[in-house]
Amino acid sequence: MTDLLNKPLTSEAGSDQFAPTKADKFTFGLWTVGNRGRDPFGDFVRPVLNPLVQVKKLSELGAWGLNFHDNDLVPFNATPFERDRIVKDFKQALNDYGMVVPMATTNLFFHPVFKDGAFTAVDPGVRAYALQKTMRAIDLGVELGAETYVFWGGREGVDAEASKDPMEAVKRMREAINFLCEYVKDQGYNLRFALEPKPNEPRTDTYLPTVGHMLAFISTLDNPDMVGVNPEVAHESMAGLNFYQGVAQALEVNKLFHIDLNDQKGPRYDQDLRFGSESIKNSFFLVKLLEEKGYTGPRAFDAHAYRTEDEAGVWDFALGCMRTYNMFKEKAKRFAADAEIQALLSEINGGDQTYGGLLGGKYSPEKASRLKGSDFDVDKLASRGYKYEKLDQLTIEIILGVR
Ligand SMILES: [Mn+2]
Predict the structure, then answer these.
(1) To the nearest whole number, what is the mean pLDDT of the chain?
(2) pTM of the entire structure?
């Protein structure tokens, strides 16, 4: 490995205030920088990038850690001997370059056995095999230090609607997650699950398609405290939803266990673009939320370089994700420190928030009676100007760097 590891860096991390550091807690999936640019219409455009090289280069660029699907690291058909050798070398590289593995996951979508899904497949043999593969992958993740385990239901969906009962599918998913939670408890692992929704692709429709569906599903599990969500920018955007707001709802109920950062242009196929490269305003509010509202987990990038890029372009992509996050972090600080914006926000949100004691707190018959008997000057309330045009323009001026 020495030759590979001594290859010079192709991109400079930079030394300005936006240069990523390990304190920023940036992580990348092995499948992200390792993405070889294959798509449904064209073959690989980049050679295999050895995981040990990824560890070194990402560390030098300022990343904190790496995530993987079981088969990103250990090939599907590896023997136990090969597995142990690969894991030993990977652990050594993590140690050498001060990198961590905060999250791991299972590939339950690539091999043809999973063409009808995994936990929700109609074939019981496939469902049982998916549980076995996941338990083994959980063991692997925990061995490398993972404390969060992600479930993206890659092919947990349907093409022929008549083929599956969607209520049965949700029950099967619940049974699988319940079983695997018990497995984690049985093993004494310090591991939480994060469920990742996606509305479609590769299946025509995927079960549990959005953050909202997932949060509702989690409340029906045997161990709901062990399970949260892993929202991905592109996935929620494919459903035409406001990612920032979905993440906020998850955070508000302490269910944001992990987050997959990338970008997406409109409700199309899953583009996994460089973070902040397209939806600049939504990305700004997302970073502002994560930085100001107590999210302490990894800032994980689940994206890949354009198919036009060679290896140098891959490192440009990785550094770009991290620098852009830090630029938005700086913009959020400017927003918080801007006297005019803060005065405007105070004015917008000012006034007696209890409205003379009619709002806030719990229901009481007395409060209900007072509310029903109150006189409201509806015309006065309706005539208010909210100054949102001014506020939004000031926000744009912060983001575009003129304030
Ligand atoms: Mn994606």
Answers:
(1) 96
(2) 0.94
